User: Fold these one by one.
Assistant:
Number 1:
Amino acid sequence: MDEMSEPLRGKRIIVGVSGGIAAYKAPLLVRLLVKAGAEVTCAVTEHALQFVTELTLETVSQHRVYSQLFDRSNPHSTEHISLKDWGDALVLAPATANIIGKMANGIADDALSTLLLSFRKPLFVCPAMNTQMLESPAYRRNADRLRADGVHFVDSTSGQLACGTTGDGRMAEPENIVAQMVKQLQVEQDFHGKKILITAGPTYEKIDSVRFIGNFSTGKMGFALAEELAERGAQVHLVAGPTHLTTQHPNIERIDVHSACEMYDAATSRFPSCQAAILTAAVADFRPEHQADHKIKKQNDHDGMTLQLVQNPDILATLGAMKQAGQLLVGFALETDNELENAQKKLTKKNLDFIVLNSLHDAGAGFGYDTNKVTIIDRQGNVTPGTLKSKRAVAKDIADKIIQQP
Ligand code: C5P
């Protein structure tokens, strides 16, 4: 059998089934996944078994169904052969509003929701519910939260619903679910075996026990790069300044730091074992010379205050000096004047392979946005301007550029 007829060959897929009428389509989905070459196990809620039997799912999947958290006769209920480690991907079809609400809020009160909370690999959710539920603010909030967590949604379609009405809320057809899964899971592993260092986010430079100097960076660009590279097979060391962002992929090792000096230590100690480093962090150039371990008090009502600052180490320049043959170094630049010229100078001075110039002039680009517009300049002198796109799409362009480097 070739890759075309069995595009999921070698993949282990968990089909999660929750209690909606569309559960009657779950056995068909299992069959299609098996036909596509996957090994399949089902995990179901108690309510799902009102619509589809365990025997049907076991027959089509050729595996025991996981339905009880405390079933001592099921091998996947024991710690040592845990289903979360077994599966390469999980598809929840149908996903009711109830299970989506539990997932979005970290509730784990049965076998399937417990598995979902611990699962760290690609997760596909196929919602099915009536239109009012789909349009409710609570459902939308929960679905948005899961999307932000990196869950893939195979959206419902419009048509006749079980409640007798017509509208959005029908589960996507099993053929379409499989097609989307194949598209996502067939990502080329072109970074397999490579270790990549990424810095991301702002740094906080402590003034005293309650205050700091920081900046508006959110870390979104660096986190998008970490996910992109990890999905393409890289082992990622993500050195992150203070941010509320979360990481999804198990190949990402996250090292949380606060200050530029901490980021410097974390990055310089890891760089020698990496094939590439991409420094997206907005590192503070200065830190207070003295950091008080108590809250600094006002002296009197009129006096100002002078804060003496000293320079932080330049992490990128340090890695540029450390760089060995076979290592690749990528920096970011945010310029207000003579953008291209300054970025080019930085590229040479810091011994980079290429530099990513952030645009400050375009709406939707830069700090906090989910989109970015960049120009990539390499040491061979090629200048590649990009269009405004999602930070994840920019991350893909950067990853492609790394792979193409001589
Ligand atoms: O020189 P400039 O700060 O404009 O350079 C920006 C690039 O250098 C970014 O890639 C940033 O992550 C990196 N940088 C660093 N350490 C610093 C300052 C900037 O790694 N102290």
Number 2:
Amino acid sequence: MKTDLFLLKYGELALKGLNKPAFEKKLLNTIKRRLAKLGNFSVRCSQSTIYVEPLCEIDTEEVLSVLSKIFGIANICPVVKCEKDLDEIEKTAVELIREYRTTQKTFKVESKREDKSFPLNSPQLSREMGGRILKNINDLKVDVHTPEIMVNIEIRDKAYVYTRKIQGAGGMPLGSNGKAAILLSGGIDSPVAGWMICKRGVCLEAVHFHSHPYTSDRARDKVLDLARIMAKYCGRINVHVVPFTEIQLAIIEKCPENYLTVIMRRLMMRIAEKIAVANNAQALITGESIGQVASQTMESLVCTDSAVNIPVFRPCIGMDKEEIVTISKKIGAFETSIQPFEDCCTIFVPKHPKTKPTLAEIEEAELLLGDIEAMLDDAIARDEVVVCE
Ligand code: ATP
Ligand code: MG
């Protein structure tokens, strides 16, 4: 059936006090920008509800797919409008149930009467429609406690009828909480980490290290594909692709082998910090999780953390791989993440990585590298920025 209106409910945003209008404005802007690709829409908000009205032919599922990726929206109901007439409302409700019902066996009607001149009050209208629906669809039963289908009828300028409530992405509107730089690898964890921070309203800048010719162009393209998948939720992401080969080779040549990974990660953090600061990002994000690999033991994380002066957020820190994979699948990144291309972290892996390094040992080993600042600045000077949207 043709959708006449999408009703959007806020999540946490509804709890905001004086700042609410500013948050609403950001959310409305994001909705308008994302929908512009699908045609002409009127978007307005009133009393914690956003009304999105298509002004052109649309594909309902396509619009739902875009709206359900916008942070700040708790749920979305596609509404069909009809005349405020019992027969018309019945026809619309029955058609909607028939179109979207799969295995559901129970329903409940809930009504709201905003137009008080309508002859039936809300409970009367619910009862009347419940009876009419039962007559039309004889294998459905009423269940007022845990209905599988909720038939909503709102009497306003027209009768609004809807049976579907699609879960939104939740979180806070994009841009309501500053900016951070995500260290984006081609793995499963870092896109999930970026998504989780972005869900809280944070815009992202991304940094990816590649080790050409040890890593292939396809490995780099895979990361850009991941950034594009994230961008459906997170908005446009600038990906800084930083050449890391020279730094890695210098570490291999000059530093003790068992410290290689931690030193490499510390230098990645320092480059990411410089890029973050230059692009007004206030923190770094990684996909690390305690104990996942040798470079993510508590001791290694302490050494990595001390390399930079801005906060490092690791939203996956306490998550098991299974839990991270569940989110990766939900956001549509998993299939891309598991494509088997090498990452710069995996090509030069020491045989016996130190799992409990001390900061003093690492700092001493780093002295062997000489002018580290110059090495970092040289890599940044050669980075390539790819806009992903
Ligand atoms: P997975 O663990 O699923 O293979 P990952 O992204 O967690 O993927 P790790 O080797 O565990 O990869 O790296 C830990 C973190 O370091 C990543 O989550 C990411 O934030 C960062 N990182 C690793 N390699 C790179 C890279 N080539 N470019 C940018 N950041 C990277
Ligand atoms: Mg990992």
Number 3:
Amino acid sequence: MNASSLLTPHSSPEIPVIAIDGPSASGKGTVAALVAKELGFHYLDSGAIYRVTALAALRAGIALDDEAALARLAGHLDVRFDNGEIWLGGEKAGEDVRSEASGNAASRIASLPSLRQALLEFQRSFRTAPGLVADGRDMGSVVFPDATLKIFLTASAGIRAERRYKQLMEKGMHANLSQILQDIQQRDARDSARSVAPLQKFADAHLLDTSTLNIAEAVNEVLAHYRDSVRQAS
Ligand code: C5P
């Protein structure tokens, strides 16, 4: 299987999708959730799907390079998103999904083509009326290639590391800035270098560099681009 075989048609092209892709800790999750709230759209955190799959694999003792077993697990995942809570096998997955361990494990299993294929329809099932804001690495390129608007949201690795460091400190968690920067750089390299659905800005995506923007400014930029797209389409 290759990346092009993932470009299968999806079911609801009439429902608008805003695809926001970008690297770890760029703030895309926060921006995407606020854009969704502003428009009354649903929100898909695709990173959480990869994280919860990784967590399920760690719990089941499946090796992170056992592609066949991971794809089987992903195809039968008992996961539910409910009001910002993630349920795995009938239990709240809680903070474990957000841990650096789950993030790193997610980034490793995310390079496996059959695992990505197994998660494709699940991600597309979030496309329901009145619309969807989807955040990830391949939302505009693979999962929703006909998205109404595609944004590539990024910031320098140094700024992203500082933001993550502040977040962890605010939660009273132990954090080491240089370790965080190293993790972010490693994850970027792995996400960008993989052969299937690599992290990259495609020509049809708008680049939004938030290094010097606050969250409200970034949200307003996305909303302005969305209004332009809707105007141009009508
Ligand atoms: O966005 P977040 O950092 O939570 O994602 C965790 C990992 O899941 C990423 O490092 C990436 O490897 C993977 N991922 C992906 N495709 C997506 C979303 C996340 O490969 N659409």
Number 4:
Amino acid sequence: MHRYSNTRELGRHFLQIPGPTNVPDRILRAIDRPTIDHRSVEFAQLARECLEGMKMVFKMDSGHVFIYPASGTGAWEAAIVNTFSPGERVLMFETGHFATLWRAIAESFGLVVDFLPGDWRHGVDPTVVGSKLTADAEHEIKAVICVHNETSTGVTSRIGEVRRAMDAANHPALLIVDVISSLASIDYRQDEWRVDVAVAGSQKGLMLPPGLGFNAVSEKAIAVSKKACLPRSFWAWDSMLEPNESGFFPYTPATNLLFGLREAISMLVSEEGLQNVFHRHYRHAEATRRAVQAWGLELLCQEPEEYSNSLTAVLLPEGFDEAEFRRLVLENFNLSLGSGLGKLKGRVFRIGHLGDFNDLMLCGTLCGVEMGLRKSGVPFRQKGVEAAIEYLSSELREQTCVSK
Ligand code: PLP
């Protein structure tokens, strides 16, 4: 029970972890319908709208989007088992906790992973990608596998530059990217960057509850998968392609989540527009960074070009425990913040500012953090929320000027 009331929870909970994110009422209403027959004409129409709509979200014209009733971890596994044969060599990068977990999946399927070490404060270095591939004259490396936005660190890797480094090395490796916390929040371009497999989930920028996993796959990767021989059954792209043509799935799909997905695609693509979605995320991220810097706290991400627009990871000073800080914030202000993951446990808390979110929700979140800092005794300067408000208001003034 929260300290401000010992009888009941007052107002709405602030869910500002970096996913699952807040589900808009419109999406909840869309999901809140009687489940329909997944072999009906009505369902086929729904599935086609989702499959085609997701291509717009991934920014792809060719290839195929596979939708699984699964979390992101399932979609990670799907990307691996459809693409490789045992013993094949791949390049992965230690950008944080999620890159480390994905590596473990690849290794558990017998891939030989060249896992390039990192400090969890930087993204994938495109020059290292270039030199590794150039040195691989025999083309033994079958894929470059990256996490676009490391949700554990708030660092966004520059996938366009990774692609350019691969092209400069003239290497045929596949490019496989986890876009779980970047899709529909941070600009992602499947076709332009010639990404072969992108892995996504429903519970972040898509503003849905957890439960859908995605593989967005190029024609090249579909061709490679026909020869790949890792064991697969539930995840097999092959068995999904034909039924999807007519709007069906080889097994029972998550029907009601697909109602929600159709609504989300409409909100993001047709109504707000993806460029506006990205700009909104940039604004909220920039306001958050200004607040953190004004507090005199340290951003975990050390490279401004790699600042994440979907979350901000903040280092607490030595001697202060993030779990204790988050507990205090939750109990006093009904605000959930993201925890420190893996080797950042105890040291870093994360502010999620992705998904369905507006200026006042951000201000409330930052107020919760600032009040938590006051109560916890963490040394900080007072004016973080003010810095964020100043930035948000000046940006609004600029927008007004432009539209006149
Ligand atoms: N990859 C990234 C970047 C994530 O943020 C997450 C979860 O937060 C995952 C993978 C794993 O996804 P899930 O927890 O849905 O299985």
